[in-house]
Specification:
With 216 residues, this protein is mainly α. Helices cover 56% and strands 0% of the residues. It has 8 helices and no strands. Helix 3 runs antiparallel to helix 4 and helix 3 runs antiparallel to helix 7.
Length: 216
């Protein structure tokens, strides 16, 4: 008779589930879709930060230019402004994910006094609607008008050294970075309407608290 071979350390390691790291777990929790979210809505929400990213990369390029504002603003102040504006823009863009994610309907457990409770529909829809309106007005309506007329909002013509009038690759790079922002407001508006429809048609009753593995 053959004697059973004892399990080796290699076999045990192969069968033992690998523990998920903190960063992957946080990423998964932040992107975990809520129940009933259609695939198209998830794709639109996940694309919003990518729509905002090119303009942020373009702005960060200002950090490496010799003359940032013609001497009117100190370089350190302009550097801080550019970095802060880029970070805030990406954070605001990521809030669109909340319109399709679990944490957009149930407060994460780590929030004192609110963890595990249902997010009031108005608490998400009202600021999202205001944000979508402002974004559409600024980056869609006004941006298109100023681009077509090549003028500022007060009617004055754009300076000759403005990126859109510089010509060549600089103008192409500028438009490639900022044209996607035209979609930001409308995308948030569509997601907000889908969120409102989904929450309105949801069955009454409290949602189940987030599981330990799904906490943000």
């Amino acid at each position: 008779m053959f004697q059973a071979r004892p399990a080796s350390t290699t076999d045990e390691a192969a069968t033992t589930p690998r523990r998920e790291g903190r960063l992957p777990r946080a990423w998964r929790a932040a992107h975990e879709p809520a129940a009933g979210v259609p695939r198209w809505a998830r794709r639109v929400a996940y694309a919003v930060p990518l729509v905002v990213l090119p303009s942020g990369i373009w702005r960060l390029g200002v950090l490496f230019t010799a003359d940032k504002r013609g001497g009117s603003v100190a370089d350190w102040a302009m550097d801080g402004y550019v970095v802060l504006l880029t970070l805030i823009s990406e954070v605001l863009a990521f809030t669109a994910v909340g319109l399709v994610a679990r944490w957009g309907e149930v407060f994460p457990r780590w929030m004192p006094g609110w963890g595990g409770r249902r997010v009031p529909t108005a608490a998400a829809v009202v600021p999202a609607t205001i944000g979508a309106t402002i974004l559409t007005l600024v980056f869609t309506v006004i941006a298109i008008i100023t681009t077509v007329t090549q003028s500022k909002t007060n009617g004055d013509p754009l300076p000759a050294d403005f990126p859109s009038r510089a010509g060549g690759w600089e103008t192409v790079y500028f438009y490639a970075s900022y044209v996607p922002l035209v979609l930001w407001g409308p995308m948030v508006g569509i997601l907000t309407y889908a969120y409102w429809r989904r929450r309105r048609s949801a069955t009454a009753g409290p949602l189940m608290p987030l599981e330990d593995g799904s906490a943000c």
